[in-house]
Amino acid sequence: MSAQSAATATANERVKTLTLDSTQLYLTALNSTTSTLSFPPIPSSFPPSNFIPHTRFLIDSFRHPFTAFSASYFLSHFHSDQYFGLCPSWSKGIIFCSHLTSLLLIQTLKIPPRFVFALPLNDPVLVDGCEVILIDANHCPGSVQLLFKVPIKNGIFERYVHTGGFRYCNSMKLNSYLIGFVGCDAIFLETTYCDPKCIFPSQEESIDYVVSVVDRIGKEFGKRRVLFLIATYVAGKEKILVEVARRCKTKICVDGRKMEILRVLGYGDGEVFTEDESESDVHVVGWSVLGETWPYFRPNFVIMEEVMVERGYEKVVGFVPTGWTYEVKRNKFAVQTKDTFEIHLVPCLEHSNYDELKEYVKFLKPKKVIPTVAMDFEKLESKHADKLRKHFDGLIDEMDNKEDLLMGFHRGNCETVEKVERDANEERVMERNKNMFEIKTVESNDMDVSSNDVSYVHKPDSQDSTIPSEEERERIIEETRDSLPRWVTRDQILDLVGSSRWNIVEAVSNFYEHEIEFYEQVSVFRTFESASHASSPNSPISLSNSGHFRSSTDENVNTNLSLVSKSPSLKFTRWRNISPSKRKKNTEKRSNKKVKSNSTLKSSGSKQPTITSFFSKLLPDDSKGGKTDRKN
User: Fold this and answer.
1) How far apart are CA 253 and CA 249, in angstroms?
2) pLDDT tier for residue 104 given thresholds of 50, 70 and 90
């Protein structure tokens, strides 16, 4: 055959697109003799973020207790919040996913192979008359973004992008299939970290940090003296583990369930991972062993001590690689210590940060953004979903957004539209009442606080039902201290917990809303102290009046913060127990108040390579889709 004939044959093969009928696949899986199936209408209460308009395609949606109304289920990646609801007895429909995810479903969750269908990457497939394309999501091994081209009528198509869980990187802009979805009708966007505070370093930078800490401390103490604990999910964070093993020349100890996942990923040879604790000083532990990460990080030094004693070590160094622990501050990596224990909070994320989310939306320029991770996101037009979408104002194609997408989700269900309107009216009434209450609160606080007093400590009003005992106050102070950076002084902690009425969660949350102001207080004190020592080297600043609840570690800073605060040339922004956004709304209504605008954070785009390429040399060929058989 000539080269030209071979090229023509290859082109013809490419034209042949795999065509699938989910109903027929499902009937075959059920061994049914019927040739057709009828499904009830999709209920209006079904979350719109898990449903592709004008289809019966359900995305990452296995937990809803409805009667089966579809045979087409898509799984974007193998994380429990996506596959929750799947079990060995699954028989509600066909699960379409990537090849690697199909192996994890069959070998780990024991899903019957006849209900799992692997689709190829970067190769269009027709499912129920709709073009479906899977592209890499740079999230966890096997994760994909789903591109849908849905026929409407008269040759008109609507295009939708469902990101699943993903970490945006610049190489995505080069994907020819994704380029074809620029200007799509909607993007179903994973908005886990859709907050201006969430600006994380790249995965490579975070991995370098973990490797450097393990290498440095390991060499300093020697083997069998320091235990390194890395917290991970059952599936996820494999890239960190592989790099620590490779660059620190050590094996990684995992439990049986994690090893089962790693075998599917191609790491069953024992060169990198082991289940024998004596073979390694780097051990993988469950997510909650080192502490709780929500709503703020709370270390669990008690369990760390138990593990240290049980395994015969002198020191324990832990790593928590997640964005929930990230703090906007001068250092990218926070460390919490106590005695011989260290916990490093490492934002090594498999999710897109705030800037990356905006960059992705700017690239695709969709007509609509549908949040898939948010409180109350089940309501497409809810207040919270609306707030998330405002982050992308000016980045979407608003000129072409002429139709109400909500009607497409619910098939023109008038009752749903009326319900949305009722919800919106109720939310407006609640918001109006809330604003009236907050205005009164601001006015009350303004009357009680001296305008020149920087070290303001909240005085509980007469309505406070309980005041903690001295012992309880000390406990709250210490627990709050464990959740804040080490530079925070005792007086600042007292300020926080006092103004939050001794509520730790509220105190920590308020701190991170005003962290820059607190840090400036400490920074200016240090400048003030240096200047004082320079002008009077033989006359140190008096520390006789250190204030209430003195602590030996914070005495100098606490005492002199009060001195600095009284200096007429050094003034601070007074902290309040009201977020900046709320103060802005309230003070705009009062002509005698001025508001400072918050500065915005910037970061460079992500440059990390995709996770799929990282595992490409070890995993089976994913270029061909089809039924997946169970491995023996």
Assistant:
1) 13
2) very high
Q: Residue 20: which of 124, 102, 111 has the closest Cα?
A: 124
Query: What tokens does 362 get?
Result: 């700017």
Element (H, E) at 301: helix 301-311
Partners of residue 125 on adjacent β-strands:
18, 132
pLDDT digits (tens, 9 = 90+) for 304-326: 999 999 999 999 999 998 765 55
How many CB atoms lie under 10 A from the CB of residue 573? 13
Chain position carrying tokens 């539209």: 417
- CA distance linking residue 385 with residue 374, whole number of Å: 7
Considering only the C-alpha atoms of the chain, give the largest distance between any 2 of them, rounded to a whole number of Å.
98
Give φ, ψ of 187 to 5 degrees: -120, 125
What is the per-residue DSSP string for 83-107?
HTT--TT--SSEEEE-HHHHHHHHH
Lowest mean pLDDT among 154-163, 378-387, 574-583: 574-583
617 three-class SS: coil
With residue 448 as reference, give the H or E element that holds it: helix 414-448
Q: How many residues does the chain have?
A: 632
Torsion angles phi and psi, residue 56, rounded to 5: -115, 30
pLDDT at 123: 96
SS3 percent helix, strand, coil of the chain, rounded to 5, is 40, 15, 45
Q: b/e per residue, 197-229, with b = 16+ CB within 10 A?
A: ebbbbbbebbbebbbebbeeebeeeeeeebbbb
Q: Facing residues of 135 across strands?
A: 145
- What Cα–Cα distance (Å) separates residue 114 from each residue in 99, 175, 292, 340, 450? 14, 31, 39, 52, 72
End-to-end CA, the chain: 40
The alpha carbon dihedral of 496, 497, 501, 505 has a sign of: positive
Question: Among candidates 339, 291, 298, 323, which has minimal Cα distance to 481?
Answer: 298
Quick one: what percent of the chain has pLDDT higher than 90?
A: 36
Reduced to 3 states, what is the DSSP secondary structure of residue 57?
strand
Number of Cα atoms under 13 Å in the Cβ half of residue 125:
25
Other C-beta atoms within 10 Å of 404: how many?
Answer: 11
The CA distance from 201 to 189, in Å, is 21
pLDDT in tens, 48-71: 889 999 999 999 999 875 567 899
Higher pLDDT pick, 561 / 49: 49
Distance of CA 285 to the CA centre of its chain: 20
pTM > 0.70: yes or no: no
